[in-house]
Specification:
Elements (H helix, E strand, L loop, with lengths): L2 H12 L5 H28 L5 H33 L19 H25 L7 H35 L1
């Protein structure tokens, strides 16, 4: 390999660190979600005594929604770092949760789509629980349609990944 090729290889290899600012931005976004979660939690606890059951449930669903978004962000942060920047050695972190390491692209797509479906389902449930105040059936139908579309896409991606994995095993 000549000097030019080695230099070019080095540039390409080290370009992976350009993903680091994006990962840091996602970490800041995660901090922002934590702030919003804490604000909503304090508001919920403060108003809980006077809230009707349906409003309390809608408030809890809002907390669940933020929690799902935070979990999704965390999955993307870990997966992006491990897949594109630098591998993480679990032996260096004995308390590391098992599910955070070795998330390949296929599993990442499935987790992302699964989280999006769960988040959209929470939104539909929030709308349904608050239907007395917002009886807009057109918007509700769009929410349900969007959730179903996400679920179908998730199933198609999972089936395609499963077929490609089976084909790869058959070729070996």
């Amino acid at each position: 390999m000549n000097r030019f090729e080695r230099g070019f290889d080095s540039i390409v290899f080290n370009s992976r660190w350009l993903a680091a600012p994006f990962i840091l931005g996602l970490i800041l976004g995660l901090i922002g979600l934590l702030y919003k979660f804490l604000v909503k939690l304090v508001e919920f606890v403060w108003q809980l005594r006077g809230l009707p059951n349906s409003d309390a449930l809608v408030s809890v669903l809002g907390l669940v929604d933020l929690s799902l978004a935070a979990n999704l962000t965390l999955i993307v942060i870990w997966s992006s770092y491990e897949n594109f920047v630098r591998p993480i050695d679990p032996s260096d972190h004995p308390d590391m949760p098992h599910g955070l390491t070795s998330i390949g692209f296929s599993l990442l797509k499935q987790k992302l789509l699964g989280s999006i479906v769960a988040i959209s389902a929470v939104h539909v449930l929030e709308w349904f629980m608050d239907i007395d105040h917002t009886a807009d059936t057109v918007t509700f139908a769009w929410l349900i349609g969007t959730m179903i579309a996400f679920a179908v896409v998730m199933l198609v991606v999972a089936a395609a990944d499963r077929m490609s994995e089976a084909r790869a095993r058959a070729d070996h």
